[in-house]
Amino acid sequence: MGTDPDPIVRDRVLLRDVRLGEFNVVSHALNLLPALRGPYSRDVDISLRDEGPVALITWNDGENRVNLDSLARLNELFDDIEGRSGPLAVVLTGSGKFFSNGLDLDRFLSNAEEMGRTFSELKRTVGRMFVLPAYTVAAVNGHAFAAGAAISLGLDYRVMREDRGYWCMNEVEIGLPLDEELFSILRHRLPFATATHAALTAERYGGRAAVAAPAPLSDDVISADMAAPPYRRSRSRATSRPSGERATLAARVPA
To answer: How many alpha carbons fall within 13 Å on the CB side of residue 36?
Structure first.
């Protein structure tokens, strides 16, 4: 391991790093220094429901904005998931027309000091998602913008609706160009040309375009009357593969 700070976790608050492609990511549930780990929020409507070997996480909080509270709630659920054994798949989906509409910019207007902390926790959380001990799917039910799009890339597979929602990295449009750490998330999941195009142009990819692109952003697209079952594809993966080894395997996959 090199001596440079990890792009994904630059402040080194964790005790154990996992090497993943071009950068180090972390599974931070039990490895966080207790003194540095803040209390989890319980005010955000993000719930977990078990359906056999599938853990379905539903984000049902309006536009599903990314802030310290929503990230904390996701990490609380990841704590639960990391403590399980046996075959497991995890599906993260939103509600209504939003998967996640990105950073909670309105909140930053009154809490400017939270912005930097939110970026740091976003990177840490996506890094954790890369190595969750389960096969993971983003069921992108609607719009996934900016930080919401980055969260979708933290999961193994993405499934989009063909009739609703755009996947878009629109930071360049609002004067928040991606830094090295955030761009490394795109580079891990997407070919360099696709990652660069998405970051520099803020192109909005609908479901069909995301699947049909030369380097697809989405692994599958579903029709409107199939909005609920995209996670069923995970069920067969979860029951046929040992999820306990998944984090180790993920750490060996080159970017």
So the answer is: 13
- Rounded to 5°, the CA angle 186-220-135 comes to 70
Identify which of 205, 216, 115, 116 has the alpha carbon closest to the alpha carbon of residue 165: 205
173: annotated active-site residue: no
pLDDT at 202 over 90: no
**Residue in this structure with the two tokens 């700070």, named with its chain if needed:** 5
Cβ atoms of 142 and 122 within 8 Å: the answer is: no
* pLDDT per position as a tens digit, 90-110: 999 998 899 999 999 999 999
pLDDT of residue 243 exceeding 70, the answer is no
Tokens of 32: 């966080």
Mean pLDDT calculated for residue range 117-126? 96
How are the residues of the chain apportioned to helix, strand and coil, as percentages rounded to the nearest 5? 40, 20, 40
| 88 vs 237: CA distance, rounded Å | 8
From the candidates 63, 121, 171, 181, which is the catalytic residue?
171
Mean pLDDT of 181-193: 88
- Whole-angstrom Cα distance, residue 26 to residue 9? 8
Could you tell me the domains of the chain?
Answer: 18-251 (3.90.226.10)
Return the exposure string of 195-213: e unless at least 16 CB atoms fall within 10 Å of the residue's CB, then b: bebbbeebbbbbbebbbeb
pTM: 0.74
Work out the number of other CB atoms within 10 angstroms of the CB of residue 37: 14
Q: If phi over 0 gives left and psi between -120 and 50 gives alpha, with beta otherwise, what is residue 38?
A: beta
